[in-house]
Amino acid sequence: MSRGSGRFGRSGPGSPSGPSGTWRNWAGNVAVRPAREARPASVEELADTVRSAAMEGLRVKTVGTGHSFTAIAATDGLLVRPDLLTGIRRIDRSAMTVTVESGTPLKRLNEALAREGLSLTNMGDIMEQTVAGAISTGTHGTGRESASIAAQIRELELVTADGRVMSCSVKENPEVFAAARVGLGALGVVSAVTFAVEPLFLLTAREEPMTFDRVTAEFDALYAENEHYEFYWFPHTGNCNTKRNNRSAGPAAPPGRLSGWFEDEFLSNGVFQVANSFGRALPAAVPVIAKVSSRALSARTYTDIPYKVFTSPRRVRFVEMEYAVPREAAVTALRELKAMVDRSPLRVSFPVEVRTAPADDITLSTASGRDTAYIAVHMYRGTPYRAYFTAAERILTAHGGRPHWGKVHTRDAAYLAEVYPRFGEFTALRDRLDPDRTFGNPYLRRVLGD
Questions:
Q1: Which of 47, 51, 17, 48 is nearest to 35 (CA)?
Q2: CB-count exposure of residue 444 (10 Å: 0-12, 13-18, 19+)
Q3: What is the distance between the alpha carbons of residues 359 and 204, in angstroms, rounded to a whole number?
Q4: How many whole angstroms separate alpha carbon 141 and alpha carbon 226?
Q5: What are the start-end ranges of the H helices in 270-421?
Q6: Rounded distance, CA 95 to CA 196, Å?
Q7: Which of 286-300, 333-347, 414-428 is predicted with the least confidence, judged by mean pLDDT?
Q8: Are 46 and 191 in contact (CB under 8 A)?
Q9: Which residues on adjacent β-strands are paired with residue 209?
Q10: What is the pLDDT of residues 258-282, one digit of tens each?
Q11: What pTM did the predictor assign?
Q12: Would you state the torsion angle of the CA atoms of residues 396, 402, 405, 409, taken in this order, to the nearest 10 degrees?
């Protein structure tokens, strides 16, 4: 069952390469056997590693914690693991920025910033990913004015295919900065990121069940009235759980230890795991399970520092597809999705997640140039998902949807060139920075072309 910030879910990195040399992602739907692995401990070692691999004709991909559901990081060449490229390089309190090594997990960054009395403005709903993995795939949370993690970047350090270390920002290599913030691993290997930060603040979260009809009828008002608004619709029901996060003057009032454990661990992970396992074994029971799950969580309000409100523990593994549609199309698309599920034989045990983001200026950000709503569909790992995802994708692409770069989809370069006005700008930059496709793989060939 789910509530709040998507409290169903995922935790932990992808599987390390075992004796066979095979690496698998967190969901288990992508496996790769690289020719070699490297663990550089500095940007200089990283540059040497990339330069040497390129001279040998090896493709190079960096893999973080494996939270992408696509093969965006897959390679049969050199697999770079960034687990030694971690930690904060510097904090600049006059500029209010933090520079962090690219392999640093978001969890460690958030905790370190909090100790310094600082915070990112917005973040996604998990923090297991590495910094570079999160920005390169366009990881986002939900926000009326505050956008994705990548939109909070002030400077990037990038190792290009010829082994150069390039700094880019609005003032330095601005055309690279515009694209590399969500670079898909196609332009180079990110070695460090400088984020804007602000003084640590408090958020009050209000989690509350609402009906699907009310949520869709009041979507515009709920979006306008809250700094961060999201909701989850339970297929086979008319029920949703909503979460509204707004800044607070305090005092802090986090969930009690016992009540927090009961809701976030026992219900949203333990019981939800059992329910999904039962539903996978007996699909006919899924609608009943969904009705019970959607009513199991009651309203609650709590106040805490940002990362403890934005993010949640997620341990139930699944496969996910997410599309970004124009915000004004969100309710229509969601109603069409509900009608499709209601009339189909599909049995869907995971909630559908809806979030928002303001337009940004990043070339291939899913929110590039338009106010955006995100609609995400999930299926429990090991459950057939293609029929559901195909039907959902048909609805979402009809509204000009842009697929999340790190989540399951079937779109190709021809489609993506139609929904991204700056698509050609990105591919031209790729031709300049990586003409030999050192950072290429089959996924990038599909989504970016040759």
A1: 17
A2: buried
A3: 25
A4: 14
A5: 272-281, 286-296, 306-310, 330-343, 386-397, 413-419
A6: 8
A7: 286-300
A8: yes
A9: 241
A10: 555 445 554 555 666 777 676 777 8
A11: 0.92
A12: 30
